[in-house]
Amino acid sequence: KLVSREFHGEDLNVEVGDVSIGNGKFAVMAGPCAVEDRSMIEESAAFLSEMGVRIIRGGAYKPRTSPYSFQGLGRKGLELLREAADRYGMKTVTEVTGEATLEAVSSLSDIVQIGARNAQNFQLIQRVASCGKPVLLKRGFMNTVEELLLSAEYIAYGGNMSIILCERGIRTFETSTRNTLDISAIPLIKMQSPLPIIADPSHASGRRDLIIPLSRAILAVGADGIEVEVHPRPESALSDSKQSLNFREFERLMQELKSLVDTR
Ligand code: PEP
Ligand code: MN
């Protein structure tokens, strides 16, 4: 298989302009769950760039469990994320939820994210493979490691080797966290595949008080980075309020990470 160690022995890095994922660095992709309006994404980008973050996240098309929940700003959200990132020289990552909006997402974002709910939407994945942008592929919460690697294989087979894998927690019987971070998946994937792998402690736990300890674990097992939710005012966030770090908490996380690893 194209994404196996047998086929490609050495670690692969993903280059996003002047930012690389892999390469012995620890990439921090941070930002709000969703782009809510111009001022909050602007405020987030200003703060995050000051913290040394090179890749800002923010959802424009949100896959919400309830149809009554905030669905994201759509194309306007993509534009606001782009505008804020450009002002501070940052790269962007945002999720594509369907083929109809892939053109908009891939033309306005530096990295295209495939979310957990679409981790086995093979038609969408095949389209994303040929969109010309690096892909952040999140593990489905019901997917095995083998299934995740086969989803990645679709992207590679489609001619795109710029793939970043992401462990974001799986469904288990445990109810005290939103999902269960499968920490073993990280070293397991490192053994089986040369692709960079990051983890998302926010969606894995659903709790802001677990983000720092989980990030320590993620770093310790050899991941290439994290994707983490940060909001200027988490208590009033329109989505994932309980798992978003505020600026002060994020600063603590970054200080700790910077003392241990190269986050640039
Ligand atoms: C996200 O990162 O915005 C998200 C919805 O994550 P996941 O697909 O892992 O649930
Ligand atoms: Mn979220």
What does this protein structure show overall?
It is built from nine helices and ten strands. The protein has one domain: Aldolase class I (TIM Barrel, Alpha-Beta Barrel). The protein is globular, with a radius of gyration of 17 Å. An eight-stranded parallel beta sheet has the order 9-8-7-6-5-4-3-10. Strands 1-2 form a two-stranded antiparallel ribbon. 34% of the residues lie in helices and 15% in strands. The longest helix has 14 residues. The protein has 264 residues and is an alpha/beta fold. The protein binds phosphoenolpyruvate and manganese (II) ion (MN). The site of phosphoenolpyruvate (PEP) has 11 residues, from loops.
How much is the radius of gyration in Å?
A: 17 Å
Please tell me the overall pLDDT.
98
CATH topology: TIM Barrel
Number of helical stretches of at least 4 residues: 9
Structural class: alpha/beta
Number of domains as seen in the coordinates: 1
The CATH class is Alpha Beta
Classify the beta-strand content into a percent band.
15-25%
Biggest sheet character: 8 strands, parallel
Helix content: 25-40%
